[in-house]
Amino acid sequence: MTTIAYCKIDDMPAEWQYYLPFLEAEVVQRVERMRKVEDQLRTVCAHLLTKMEFTTTFQKELCIYKDSNGKYQTGQDFHFNISHSGDYVACAFSAFPVGIDIEQHVKRDFSLFQSLWSEEEKQLYPLHEQEAFYGLWTAKESYGKYKGFGLHTSLTEATIQRDGLIHLPLGIEQAHVIPFFIAPNYSATLCTEDSLDAVTPYKWGQIEAFFK
After folding, report:
1. Which of 13, 89, 76, 11 shows the shortest CA–CA distance to 49?
2. Which of 11, 21, 137, 140 would be 204's cystine partner, CB 3.0–4.6 Å?
3. Domain chopping of the chain, boundaries
4. Which CATH number fits domain 2-211: 3.40.50.300, 3.30.565.10, 3.90.470.20, 3.20.20.60?
5. SS3 for 12?
6. Strand residue runs (E) in 9-161
7. β-pair type (65-66, 72-73)
8. Which residues of 17-42 are buried (b: 16+ CB within 10 A; e: fewer)?
């Protein structure tokens, strides 16, 4: 089973630091180094949402750590991945390795990103258009996070097909990508070896009630 939980951060209270003791020391240290409050809020909310889902939905208490590639792991046969952008955070949970990416649509010079795409992708998608650009961007990012190396230049070797299959020089990747909806003017994509069973929205008040 693969599921997604997401939450909007705009209802978080001014005293959000109250929730830091519920997080791992590494996460707290990273939050304290951040200069922008928005980055702090997104990170805190994402990790609180993750811990709440572990306990309430999956009845698991897991020790979370980062591997050598900087990807969060649980040390068990259970996987998760986090993404956040703009006003939203999202977490994916699965019995399989998983990657997720959400991106708020902002104005960009799309021509500057040509090195990210395979030659076939440049033919498949109108990448000068916002929807196509962010759709493929989040697909590539989610695949990179599934593999554990993020958005990397080697991703040009992978072609994301319109049906979600990922073609590699030597065959087809075991995982595939699945776009899903969070809000207008956002793109969001999951990369998984499984099906996507549920996408669940949460309000900050639900997270607040759980930890209090």
Report:
1. 89
2. 11
3. 2-211
4. 3.90.470.20
5. coil
6. 65-66, 72-73, 79-85, 88-94, 98-104, 159-160
7. antiparallel
8. eebbeebeeebbeebeeeeeeeebbb
87 Cβ contact partners less than 8 Å away, ≥ 6 residues apart: 8, 9, 10, 104, 183
Q: What is the pLDDT of residues 126-138, one digit of tens each?
A: 999 999 999 999 9
Write out the DSSP string of 107-134: ---GGGGGGGS-HHHHHHS-TTSHHHHH
Cβ contacts of 172 within 8 Å, gap of 6 or more: 165, 166
> Is this structure's pTM higher than 0.85?
yes
Query: In this structure, what token pair is assigned to residue 72?
Result: 């969060």
